[in-house]
Design a protein that fits this description.
By secondary structure, this protein is an alpha+beta fold. It is built from 8 helices and 19 strands. The strands form 4 sheets. Strands 1, 3, 4, 5, 6, 7, 8 and 19 form an 8-stranded mixed sheet that branches. The chain has a 7-stranded mixed sheet with strand order 2-18-17-14-13-12-11, with helices on one face. The longest helix is centred in the N-terminal third of the chain and has 19 residues. The protein is globular, with a radius of gyration of 18 Å. About 5% of the residues have low confidence.
Length: 312
């Protein structure tokens, strides 16, 4: 585990070490994932500059196989016009279309650093309302997967702060998993975004599709994040027996009315036993961890919960 602006790895009990202990493996059995933690605002160009700086430093320090940005890193906060202006028409996988500035940036990052790039999520033009869409690029810059957030954040926090994501965005309707390959061998990734984490049936569906690693970009509020962020991610990792990589936004931004809003940060990587193996604190930075299939397989074999499920 390596990271910049991180908490140390929590201590593990003997039972955890026993469950996660694995035989010696070749390099094809491991994948290094870095989750990038940003403090974006509503200025798209400044956000792209921030992302470029963090990815550059992370790749130089940790040599990951996949880097991942947080939710709505291109435009967090602002009003409806700001969000619409920052949104882009996203080419379909396999298309020769150039795409907008954020799309080109993500594609070029993948090519330049020769890594898989999960583009967190960006606003996608989609008719009267936008989509909150994740994009996944291979090291040659090919777009191989896209997922639009299924569950929209229309809530009032216990502190009385309201959020209405559906005022600007419409929900996606597709469950997306994708196999990636490289020097690490092959892993199947499951895609989700932020508020999706509260809906366990999505992650059970991804597990049934063969997902081994769940990728979750997020912009959790400071209030809900303090209460539930780590708890939810660890719970989903435990009940799906998958690795989780969660890249979050941090810091302060302004909403449509100019009010200050805070996001939680604490980007993390969690193993299939529910142990936090790498975690950022607050502020810009990243966390990196090596994941391995053998540890996951051992847990799934010794505790075959999917075989024991009684309800569909």
């Amino acid at each position: 585990m390596t990271c910049f602006n991180c908490f140390p790895k929590p201590g593990n009990a003997a039972i955890i070490e026993a469950m996660m202990a694995v035989p010696q493996e070749g390099p094809e059995d491991h994948m290094r994932i870095s989750v990038i933690q940003m403090a974006p605002g509503s200025d798209k160009a400044e956000n792209i500059t921030q992302a470029a700086r963090l990815i550059e430093a992370c790749v130089a320090a940790d040599d990951p196989d996949l880097v991942m940005l947080p939710e709505m890193w291109t435009c967090l906060g602002g009003n409806r016009h700001d969000k619409s202006s920052a949104a882009e028409a996203v080419p379909l996988p396999g298309s020769d279309a150039e795409g907008g500035p954020a799309f080109r940036f993500l594609r070029d990052c993948a090519r330049r650093h020769r890594v898989h790039v999960h583009g967190g999520s960006i606003g996608e033009q989609g008719g009267d309302k936008l989509l909150n869409t994740s994009l996944l690029f291979t090291p040659d810059g090919s777009l191989i997967a896209r997922y639009s957030k299924m569950h929209l954040f229309d809530i009032t926090t216990p502190g009385g702060v309201g959020y209405r994501e559906s005022d600007v965005y419409r929900p996606g309707d597709a469950v997306v998993s994708i196999e990636v390959s490289g020097r690490f061998g092959r892993f199947r990734l499951g895609l989700a975004i932020c508020y999706d984490i509260r809906f366990g049936e999505l992650f059970h569906r991804l597990r049934r599709e063969g997902a081994e690693v769940m990728l979750l970009p997020a912009a959790f509020t400071a209030e809900t994040g303090e209460a539930h962020w780590e708890t939810l991610i660890r719970a989903r990792a435990i009940d799906t027996q998958c690795w989780f990589a969660a890249a979050a936004t941090t810091g302060q931004h302004r909403d449509a009315d100019g009010h200050s809003r805070l996001t939680h940060g604490h980007s993390m990587i969690v193993d299939p036993w529910g142990t936090v193996v790498a975690q950022a604190s607050v502020g810009q930075g990243w966390a990196t961890s090596r994941i391995n299939r053998a540890a996951m397989t051992r847990i799934r074999t010794s505790m075959p919960v999917m075989e024991h499920r009684r309800l569909s």
